[in-house]
Design a protein that fits this description.
It is a single chain. With about 240 residues, the chain is of the alpha+beta class. The protein has a domain of about 100 residues. Helices cover about 55% and strands about 20% of the residues. It has six helices and six strands; from the N terminus they run H-E-E-E-E-H-E-E-H-H-H-H. Strands 4-3-2-1-5-6 form a six-stranded antiparallel β-sheet. Helix 4 runs parallel beside helix 6 and helix 5 runs antiparallel to helix 6. The termini are far apart. About 20% of the residues are buried.
């Protein structure tokens, strides 16, 4: 009985300690709640940045009679993506990685911004039709919003700039692919491919020629490459670096 009485006498004190612990814990929790508005305030900025990165862009070209009859270029907000192309009399498309240079990406972004593409319903097709030159499609998607515009010729300067930049980027990727295949399987084709590169360079038909410098440096020192192609690579390096 004495033990039971002792325990009962000590119970109020224990309850007081327990109650105090709950009170302190509640105060701590209230203190933690006070910090949550600051954490929540940072969330919208992160979400907004993610939405910007989720924007997707694409360009498509089609002309069944051209040597390169079909091209699809796709990239994200950072200029990373793929170029898929098909050649005449070939059924299997080739898919190559795309990495737009900062300079090329800035020109492309500027053209898209000028178009206000997703907020516009502008028809970029000119009054004159030139279907023999091929059909082009440009598209943008941001979240659930998506728009595609198709034309074979345009008088809109921003739309014209955009498709020209995309064609340059695609041609550069295709050229690098052809050089890679020639280097592996048909080295004798490399002198001709160096001529193609020089022609594109003269016509300002490459997205960013400086991206080709590492490849040209590598070619110029590869003894498996015909000497004429190596010397041509060295000349192209000098032209690009000027």
């Amino acid at each position: 009985m004495s033990k039971r009485k002792s325990l009962l006498q000590g119970l109020p004190a224990a309850l007081m300690v327990f109650s105090a612990a709950i009170s302190i814990c509640a105060q701590d929790q209230n203190g933690k709640h006070n910090t949550r508005p600051h954490q929540a305030a940072a969330t919208p900025a992160v979400v907004a940045e993610k939405k910007t990165e989720d924007v997707k862009y694409s360009y498509e070209f089609s002309q069944p009679k051209f040597v390169v009859k079909h091209i699809v270029l796709e990239h994200d907000a950072n200029g990373r993506g793929t170029v898929t192309f098909e050649r005449l009399n070939e059924d299997v498309p080739v898919v190559e990685p795309l990495a737009l240079s900062p300079a090329a990406l800035e020109r492309i972004r500027s053209a898209w911004q000028t178009l206000h593409f997703l907020d516009s319903q502008t028809d970029y097709q000119s009054d004159k039709q030139f279907p023999h030159l091929g059909t082009m499609k440009i598209a943008m998607q941001s979240g659930e919003r998506k728009r595609v515009a198709e034309f074979n010729w345009t008088n809109n300067s921003a739309a014209s700039t955009l498709v020209n930049e995309y064609r340059k980027a695609a041609d550069q990727v295709i050229l690098v692919f052809d050089i890679s295949i020639g280097r592996q399987n048909q080295p004798l084709n490399l002198p001709k491919l160096m001529e193609v590169m020089e022609s594109l360079l003269k016509r300002d038909a490459l997205s960013d020629a400086t991206q080709l410098l590492p490849l040209l440096q590598d070619l110029s020192g590869d003894e498996r490459v015909p000497l004429i192609a190596r010397n041509h690579a060295l000349r192209l390096i000098k032209k690009i670096q000027k």
